[in-house]
Amino acid sequence: MLMVFMLTILSIVTFLLFNAVPTDPARLTCGKTCSPATIEANRIRLGLDQPLITQYLEWIKGIFAGRTYGSGTATFNCDAPCLGYSFRNGEQVTDMIVTSLPVTIYLALGAFVLWMVGGISTGIYAARKKGKWQDRAIMGVTLVGYSLPVFFIGILMLIFVVVRWNILPYPSYVGPNVDTLQFLQTMILPWISLAILYAAYYTRLTRSQMLDTMSEDYIRTARAKGLPEKIVLRKHALRAGLTPIVTSAGLDLAGLLGGAVITEYIFGLPGLGRLAIGAVTEYDLPTITATTLVAATFVIVANIVVDLLYAAIDPRVRLQ
Amino acid sequence: MSETDEVLLSVRNLYVEFATDDGLVSAVNDLSYDLKRGKTLAIVGESGSGKSVSSMALMGLVAGMNAKVSGEVYFDGQQLIGADPESVRKLRGDRMAMIFQDPLSSLHPFFRIGDQLVEAVQVHHDIDKKQAQVRVKAMLERVGIPDVDQRMNEYPHQLSGGMRQRVMIGMSLINNPELLIADEPTTALDVTVQAQILELLKDLQKEFGTAIILITHDLGVVADMADEVVVMYGGSAVEHAPVREIFYEPAMPYTWGLIASIPQISAKNAHLDPIPGNPPSLINLPSGCVFAPRCAFKQLVGDDLCEHERPQLSLISLEHASRCHLTENQRTDIRRARLIGRQK
Amino acid sequence: MTQVSPILKVSNLVKHFPITSGGIFQRTTGAVKAVDGISLEVFPGETLGLVGESGCGKSTAGRTVLRLLEPTSGSIEFEGQNLIKVSKRELVFMRREMQMIFQDPYSSLNPRATVGDIISAPFQVQGVKPVGGLRSAVGDLMERVGLNPEHFNRYPNEFSGGQRQRIGIARAIALQPKLIVCDEPVSALDVSIQAQILNLLAEIQKDFGIAYVFVAHDLSVVRHISDRVAVMYLGQIMESAPSELLYTEPLHPYTHALLSAIPIPDPDLERNRERIILSGDLPSPSNPPAGCVFNTRCWKAEDKCRSERPVLREISMGHQVACHFPEQNLIETISVAPTGTDFIA
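^ Those are the sequences you sent over. The predicted structure of the assembly is below.
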């Protein structure tokens, strides 16, 4: 219910943002040598002569039921979910997204697993060694990792691992079903460079959460019961400190699923982020609108998933 | 098996110090006492007196708090201070257990009641979950939880304050410990619920023969529960005696002040006699008697002795020790003049 | 003392907190009946103790009486003026006469303001220019409550709990109010400090003739300081009487049980008395029992108690009770327990 409401608002805002801009969308449908007649014809074909509200409703209808552009003999069908037609690429936007989305999903999920495992376990370790040299070393390293921009890490890895040391071939994306080895060789560096950045943040977050919960009364109870320190930490303290970590994780993952723009660009991955960047530089309005809508949908869905996870973690939320 | 006169716990010259940013905090200074099996020792004092810290220290629960613990603690003959942490851990929750002031924050908010007790059983006994649950159920019924089957599947926040403390008591006694440390067990509860919990503790003690260290600031609770009383001030025991002697023949000005400053429920006292000043900072303890700065009787001692020399905890009768420079005659006179304790 | 009119007269005061559910479009699904129709009077210079266990509504009542919380219904007359009818602006002006002291001296003082700022705030808020200047007025107040006036520029965290409560008291008496609501003013303090603050409150009352509404859960403290005491349970007043009468001859079974539950700091007396142990817990204030709210835990409850809510009625001079079957002839309550209850010898 809330989700439908949010998505409706979102679609209106996105639509207005890109379709009510002072540029003429019809002018953008063909190249420099375009005659005014072609522009006007395209305008009518795409329904751009209609009032904005009609255009919006047509667009929404396209997403759910598909739509037909033009009239008479010069029509073409766009099946649901139809996100528009990109003149620049001569392709339906939906098809473009369907090809690029899996790349982004592979990238985001791989990095996510790496950083969650790495960040949380390092964070717990640092909390256990609080104040000792191990803790201070971890804090120092994560501060550096956290402050390095992703393009810096990415380019650095590319230069050393691929160009200098020739450990890996130059990244060239193929689907995992086509050539699994090449897929992994391509993805490993982007995974690591994304994960370093996030792992640093999650290490610090986990550590501070653990230290907060370690001073709670129920941790004292757990120790008074005679539980080994390992169980006190991993079962009692981590469970209690998990909520903010889950929140961050959900939103970070959603953000990446909307397109890890810089990483995709550096490593030449044909994902959603690169699609969006390309669309922006080429003024490809239908594609910009569609990628924005997809990215924002991920964020909204992630928020709802995070809320559900809250309830799964904390019975006090569940039973209200 | 356990003889009533057998000493279960023997604390000798216990010191606990914490390194903080402001300096070294001497939380416990030279604390010694014995606790016999099945008996109740009340440790009375205000916040910062060291009453909680001393008990946490003997359970090995101040580790990781930058604490330095020294002295000797013998539990059934086994020295705990400086012992292998693993061997102390195995005693915790099994032969010695602890309950705390606030049962809501002391139970884990995310785990079911039943599971938290089952965990307490399984950490010390190699039995499966089913068997553990049977034991847990019996214990929860014993401590007066209604609808146990349902309650075991609930979370702490779904229970009332009194029920939560019953759960805590059940959890602490589930392995039938010989020693229970109860740290302000009823302070967070309402009086009618406090009465229920104190009654329950007394019954369970009789049934299981548990020795109890009762940490409290409430002299009413002490009068109800204790066999022996240690009064703590500024990290030290300032008086130690059987319960009746503490109330009827108190021997130390701080104890007098404590008794005189509580409003009575049974009669209206016209004016309270508060102890002037504030409790000492534990960072720079006075070199003399820790209570001297607030003591109204130090002039009687003369030579500024109270300011310069810390009195020893010394016996004034067979079972009664106090840490004070006043002579027996001076104490008797003051008690008579000020109507302290029971007048003969 | 003929016919002194009360400084505060509260009639049928009700404060319900709505329980809502739903996300953006919230619906009210019920109400926590924190205060459910209480009436009380406070006379100039006296102390009315308001006691009860947690969740009985005593703190809410204390705040609502000063209109720090908006009452759901009822009337509050302060010096003959209906507080509920006055505008916000008039209310600010009237606050000069009515102040509050809070329980937690750690969180109720702004940590970034100096003691001087905190105590002079009432003068500035009300635009009052004290004779002899602000600085000296604040100094006098600090001295009055036992603080060193030279500590004018210190911050609250440099003071102990007892001293902070003194700061709170100085702030409350700055404008010489006629009424102060003290909400658990000593329950966060150690016993030796508690006695200092109780004595200070008593002295100030004597000097300035301030009336107190003293909200507390500790019946011994309330007995010590109060002239009259009202006992609350689940948002209602169960019994109200002059302090001595209430403690020696309680008429309501709940009062009786409450008094009997308090351990006495005297081992012989404590161990040889009979004690009423109430069974069960406080019912939820969002769903109080029908009839008398105490009937679920009362050993005397009969059918009438489960169907008909008893009204607060006067049994003897100044002694009111809301019970169908009040206790009788209880001279030495502490040691006498009624028959038919679960008591322990």
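The longest strand of chain C covers residues 27-42. Residues 331-345 of chain C have pLDDT under 50 and may be disordered.

Shout if you want it in another format.
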